[in-house]
Design brief:
Blueprint: H1 2-15, H2 22-28, H3 30-46, H4 50-64, E1 67-68, E2 73-74, E3 79-80, E4 87-88, E5 93-94, E6 99-100, E7 105-107, E8 119-120, E9 125-126, E10 131-133, E11 137-138, E12 143-144, E13 149-150, E14 159-161, E15 166-168, H5 175-187, H6 202-230, H7 250-260
Parallel strand pairs: 1-4, 2-5, 3-6, 4-7, 5-8, 6-9, 7-10, 8-11, 9-12, 10-13, 12-14
Antiparallel strand pairs: 14-15
Length: about 260
């Protein structure tokens, strides 16, 4: 029992940078409180003490805002961050080293008896507000984006985003391409969202597309200048200013507008 509790506390430090010491985690983390209450309730449930088990889970829900059915099976080093609004159904199965954020529902889609809730294998992360519904399986290392609605199986290591949830794989970008994008973004004075390690989404793809397009235009313009020089024409070789230094204050802009008018 105490070994399991130590593991539960240790996993909080691994996944929450706000955790400062074990006493704070033990006394102020509702996700940890809900998990410990569930371990007690689940033990009663397995001994066929159904009502006491439901009573313990109801008290835990009242105190923590996390509802875990006593029949749910939860593995080791399970972490619920923030906790409020998490719902885990009766036949849900959760493996080791899984993480749920607030507002997550592991729910059912049928009123029939039997397996009707999701199965999460090891090292699965479900983002805030996501809904994982039905007797589906999220295989090892799967990731579910915030507010996604997942109703189909998720393969190992895949990421699911959107409503309805769609499976996307992390884009494998060559090292030189990644460095090139980062250099162009730095030249523009832009902190590229697309160069981070965040999960893929339309914004990241659009930003990466613009950076690649700018790089291609620079190369084409350079080739055109060389060709024109070869024909004997004179071209201004002065260095182009950085985009971040090209900003014009509102007062200067107003003055120029007045002159033009």
């Amino acid at each position: 029992m105490f070994k399991t509790l130590r593991e539960d506390i240790a996993c909080v430090f691994e996944r929450d940078p706000a955790a400062r010491n074990w006493f704070e985690v033990l006394t102020t983390y509702p996700g940890l409180h809900a998990l410990q209450a569930h371990r007690l309730a689940h033990g009663l449930w397995r001994r066929n003490l159904k009502w006491p088990a439901r009573f313990v889970s109801t008290i835990a829900r009242f105190l923590t805002g996390v509802e875990i059915h006593p029949g749910a099976q939860i593995g080791r080093r399970f972490f619920i961050d923030h906790g409020m609004g998490v719902v885990i159904g009766e036949t849900a199965e959760i493996g080791d080293d899984c993480t749920l954020y607030h507002g997550v529902t592991l729910g059912g889609t049928s009123w029939e008896k039997g397996k009707r809730h999701p199965t999460l294998e090891n090292d699965v992360v479900v983002g805030a507000g996501a809904k994982v519904l039905g007797p589906i399986t999220l295989q090892t290392g799967a990731r579910v984006g915030s507010n996604a609605v997942v109703v189909k199986n998720v393969p190992e290591g895949a990421t699911v985003v959107g409503v309805p949830g769609r499976t996307v794989m992390r884009e494998k970008v060559e090292t030189d391409v990644s460095k090139r994008r980062e250099a162009i973004a730095k030249k523009m004075g832009f902190d590229s969202y697309g160069t981070t390690q965040d999960m893929p989404d339309p914004v990241a793809r659009a930003v990466n597309g613009m950076l690649d397009h700018i790089h291609a235009m620079d190369q084409r313009l350079e080739s055109m200048c060389k060709a024109i020089k070869a024909l004997g024409a004179e071209i201004d070789d002065s260095k182009l200013p950085d985009l971040e230094n090209c900003e014009i204050s509102s007062s200067e802009s107003d003055t120029k507008d007045e002159k033009l008018s």
